[in-house]
Specification:
The chain is an alpha/beta fold and 424 residues long. It has 3 domains: 249 residues, Acetylglutamate kinase-like (Carbamate kinase, 3-Layer(aba) Sandwich); 78 residues, Alpha-Beta Plaits (2-Layer Sandwich); 61 residues, Alpha-Beta Plaits (2-Layer Sandwich). The chain contains 12 helices and 20 strands. The strands form 4 sheets. The protein has an 8-stranded mixed sheet with strand order 3-6-2-1-9-11-12-10, sandwiched between helices. A hairpin with an 8-residue loop joins strand 4 and strand 5. Helix 1 crosses helix 3, helix 2 runs antiparallel to helix 3 and helix 6 packs antiparallel against helix 7. The two termini are 39 Å apart. Bound molecules: aspartic acid and magnesium ion (MG). Aspartic acid binds next to loops. InterPro entries: AceGlu_kinase-like_sf, ACT-like_dom_sf, ACT_Aspartokinase, ACT_dom, AKii-LysC-BS, Asp/Glu/Uridylate_kinase, Asp_kin_monofn, Asp_kinase. One of its GO terms (molecular function) is ATP binding. One of its GO terms (biological process) is threonine biosynthetic process. It catalyses: L-aspartate + ATP = 4-phospho-L-aspartate + ADP.
Length: 424
């Protein structure tokens, strides 16, 4: 029998009714003759609630204990899903990430999977049971402590497990019908894509689209695991993440979507002396503090002063760390000051077709200008153009670009449906 791995997100298992609905769906897949392995997220906003609770106890929770706490969310949903399946007359057994053989490094809060040894899952399958696995967690190879893989990482658990088990497909279930041309919560006329190439999906995930965890897309590509993104709440065919050549480009679309990201901040190092090695010194310091940079822009230095400004974006949660690390460097480097701005957002236009079509950048910028959006930073890849703008203008910018590139679904019956809609 072929193995199907199904991952259900927090909005799909938000309450008892959701858990029962998911159980029905799992059993239906089983009845079609597949072995089913399920990965679950925590119920609704549980992960955020647990994090808030920790904050109330201490401003800086020890990372080991925070992981211990957060992994409890997925343990609740896995046990309840297993119970609901048993209630339907099928055998199900739940497993923590550790029991499922998800072996990670020891970086609490952002652990990487280094191996999967799913012996117990294989035994469960052989015994005819449906295995339910807690997403987003594993166990450190060195310390044997429980780890988490980063927010939204249940997707990655699912794809990694699917690859290790040699599954036929990894299905990612959420509260929308698939991958859309923009976030349907902002653009109700967004269209569902039938297929997206892995390279486009990587850009979307890396630039704020939350429908799939970035590392799950990378994992899927490396292991050639077909990923099907679809809704728990409907029977519709969702979006298939496919190898490069078979993507949307084949359907003749130049642009496959507009992504946005509200989780970033911007730092400007003002008045950096224009000397060899200064940029290296600044970015080495950031690297040592494990700050993940995104866009980096350096202006030409002003002839009068021999100084220049360096700006970069980074995750807001790394903001304090980065500012502290750089402030300690001020005297050595001799820059004037640091500016920190977290009222920014990033909007990205993504499409493999832009490789071969000129004029995309001009059209994108013109649509933003018409919407009154001022551009603070610009960066591009072969298949993406991103701009950093004021946070308050993100939604306008996304809608303007979406319309300009004819992505709106104007069919009265078309457009996106958000079936559940939790997630802060
Ligand atoms: N529950 C975790 C989170 O909220 C993992 C996940 O949902 O994928 O980030
Ligand atoms: Mg998710």
């Amino acid at each position: 029998m072929s193995i199907v791995v199904q991952k259900y997100g927090g909005s799909s298992v938000a309450d008892a009714a959701g858990i029962k609905r998911v159980a029905q769906r799992i059993v239906a897949t089983r009845k079609k003759g597949h072995d089913v392995v399920v990965v679950v997220s925590a119920m609704g906003d549980t992960t955020d609630e647990l994090r808030d609770l920790a904050q109330q106890v201490t401003p800086i929770p020890p990372p080991r204990e925070l992981d211990m706490l957060l992994t409890a969310g997925e343990r609740i949903s896995m046990a309840l899903v297993a119970m609901a399946i048993n209630q339907l007359g099928y055998q199900a057994r739940s497993f923590t990430g550790s029991q499922a053989g998800v072996i990670t490094d020891s970086a609490h809060g952002r652990a990487k999977i280094i191996d999967i040894t799913p012996g117990r899952i294989e035994q469960a399958i052989q015994a005819g049971d449906i295995a339910i696995v807690a997403g987003f967690q594993g166990v450190s190879q060195d310390t044997k402590d429980v780890t988490t893989l980063g927010r939204g990482a249940s997707d990655t658990t699912a794809v990694a497990l699917a690859a290790a088990l040699g599954a036929e497909v990894c299905e990612i279930y959420s509260d929308v019908d698939g991958v859309f041309t923009a976030d349907p919560r902002i653009v109700p006329k967004a269209r569902k894509l039938d297929r997206v190439s892995t390279e486009e999906m990587l850009e979307m995930a890396a630039n704020g689209a939350k429908i799939l965890h970035l590392r799950c897309v990378e994992y899927g590509r490396r292991h050639n695991m077909p990923i099907h993104v679809r809704s728990t709440f409907s029977q519709k065919e969702g979006t298939w993440i496919v190898p490069e050549q078979q993507g949307a480009a084949m359907e003749d679309a130049i642009i496959s979507g507009v992504a946005h990201d509200k989780s970033q901040a911007k730092i400007t190092v003002v008045g950096v002396p224009d000397k060899v090695g200064e940029a290296a010194r600044i970015f080495e310091t950031l690297a040592t503090s494990a700050v993940n940079l995104d866009m980096v822009v350096q202006n030409v230095s002003a002839a009068a002063t021999g100084r220049t400004d360096i700006s970069f974006t980074l995750p807001r949660e790394d903001g304090q760390t980065a500012v502290t690390a750089l402030a300690a460097l001020q005297e050595q480097v001799g820059f004037d000051k640091l500016l920190y701005d977290d009222q920014i957002g990033k909007v990205s236009l993504i499409g493999a077709g832009m490789k071969s079509h000129p004029g995309i950048t001009a059209k994108f910028f013109a649509s933003l200008a018409a919407a009154g959006v001022n551009l603070e930073m610009i960066s591009t890849s072969e298949i993406r153009i991103s701009v950093v703008i004021d946070e308050t203008q993100i939604e306008d910018a996304v809608r303007a670009a979406h319309t300009a590139f004819d992505l709106d679904d104007n069919d009265p019956d078309g457009g996106a449906v958000v079936y559940a809609g939790t997630g802060r």
